[in-house]
Amino acid sequence: MIHRSPHPPVDIPLVSIPAFLNHHLDNSPYWSDPQRPVYIDGTSGEVLTITEFRAGIRAISAGWRSRAGLQKGDVVAVVAPNDIYYSTAIFSVLSAGGTISPINPAYTVNEMVYQLTDSGAKYIVVDTTLVDHIRRAATEVGIPTDRIYTLQKTDDSASLHSLRINPTHPSLAHHHAGEELLTPTELHHQPAYLCYSSGTTGRSKGVVTSHQNIVANLIQVDTHQRQEQQSHAGQVLAGVLPFYHIYGLNMLIHLTLVQGSTVVVTRKFDLQTFLAGIQKYRINFAYLVPPIVLQLVKHPSVASYDLSSLRGIASGAAPLSVSLARDIIAQYGLDVTQAFGMTESSPILFLSRHANRNLDAIGVPIPSVEAKIIDPVDGQLLGPHQHGEICVRGPNIMRGYWNNPAATAATIDAEGFLRTGDVGYVNESGEFFISDRLKELIKYKGFQVAPAELEAVVIQHPRVTDVVVIGVYQPEQATEVPRAYVVIKPSTSTSDSELIESDKVALAQDIMGFVSGQVAPHKKLRGGVFFVEEVPKSSSGKILRQALRKQLQKQLAEEAKGLISPKL
């Protein structure tokens, strides 16, 4: 059975993201005040008004084409934490016909080199604090330094603002929103964004998110929220989600412009800064991830702040437990909703219908999304309360993986349904629930960690002969953490068992340090390193991760009591 939204399908215009947003900025009553803040820096208090915002995009977009030489389809990497000018960088490039590839600013040089190379980036916009870091990566890739622009104004390097064309310049007379730069076919297929995702397995891949994908998801989410009286139109929102992640990108940069909301931008999440921002700017709503929700419930300093303006939260990127949802409702009286999606779906697929009800559900399909549950083995459709893989189809589903037709074919079937890699079921009311995961990904505080990528690093340690990495859920952090189980090379002076007993702590710490020096912070082996005699594999050599997880679950209770050390 195919399941659909309780709300009617929506019409999706074939227009560029800038053209779609300009329409809302021109016609929304919330943006009629020329001094209305679009973004407020939660630390410094600097304000970017709607007038400044639009003028900056128009002038810099023209500069991308006339000064930087950006051509239609060129990829611009943006490497920065949250900033009130982040969206200026994005929309100026999109308006000039370019493509944005957001990069996690915490990446190592090697990780940045991989994304810059794979995406084919020709230009870089970077936070001033990361200039030296990105220059090393750019040099390795072959991107000239004169194509690197800082997000903020600086004296010693070219900045994004140096591309601005003077308002009286003749070129601006012919520069429009950018919709005329792309043909209908390009609007449908050319990437507006190349965000990177590990999908259901393997190393991260570029997700081709078109202009139509983003426009579709904005209309879908806005329609659902309005129909369910959950719209945040005209409100003040907390900008704590990272803008380089598709969740923050669409909810805090795109949707807020559609709904006329002001965003209080937090450069990097810090609980005290977040709480102070709610109190000072009277924030009404926050898109969050479970670990932040946990801090709101548990941290003692919360009581020192006035959070009375906060009316509700939406939790996404990872499941929010029922107990945690109930705790925050009881403590603050908030409206709590769930959101479920993927980078591959631009990102939202399911949203709660009613706040504070069926808290274990991920919600119903948003308008124009079709969903089904299939047997992961034979692909047969399953009925209500039968557990299987959740598959989805809709106008917000990616065009495919960048230059990777094999991965695309393995993820999207011939009928256009995307396999999410998540196991769940649907009830008689059409609400969906997550019960397990087929995909190998670990979710650390909403960030994807591909086990295969970590295993490729661990195996390079001189004492390791085999390794498997899996996610271990830690309730005290409300998130999974990566844990490695390794097989070590025999020592000439000490047997394996003797080494493990006498020096396993030092060796485990050495392996963790070895990994930490080569990966971004969210990929660190926070779940520890443990030693095993062998890694369980199938006859074909495939690691039996599901079997490991099930065996680990049986041992977690004893491990938590300190009765045993984890063994496989």
Helices, strands, pairings?
Layout: E1 3-4, H1 17-27, E2 37-41, E3 47-49, H2 50-66, E4 75-79, H3 86-95, E5 99-103, H4 109-119, E6 123-126, H5 131-141, E7 148-150, H6 184-189, E8 191-197, E9 205-210, H7 211-227, E10 236-239, H8 246-259, E11 262-265, H9 271-281, E12 285-288, H10 290-298, E13 312-315, H11 322-332, E14 335-341, E15 348-351, E16 364-365, E17 370-374, E18 388-393, E19 400-401, H12 405-411, E20 418-426, E21 432-437, E22 442-444, E23 447-449, H13 451-458, E24 464-474, E25 479-488, H14 496-516, E26 529-531, H15 545-560
Parallel strand pairs: 2-11, 4-5, 4-6, 6-7, 10-11, 10-12, 12-13, 13-14, 25-26
Antiparallel strand pairs: 1-17, 2-3, 8-9, 9-19, 14-15, 15-16, 17-18, 18-20, 20-21, 22-23, 24-25
Helix pairs in contact: 2-3, 4-5, 7-8, 10-11
Structure description:
The protein has 568 residues and is α/β, with parallel strands linked by helices. Among the domains are: 17-34 and 47-181, Rossmann fold (3-Layer(aba) Sandwich); 442-560, GMP Synthetase, Chain A, domain 3, CATH 3.30.300. Helix content is 32%, strand content 22%. The chain contains 15 helices and 26 strands. The model is unreliable at 563-568 (pLDDT under 50). Residues 453-542 form the AMP-binding enzyme C-terminal domain. This is 4-coumarate--CoA ligase. Belongs to the ATP-dependent AMP-binding enzyme family.
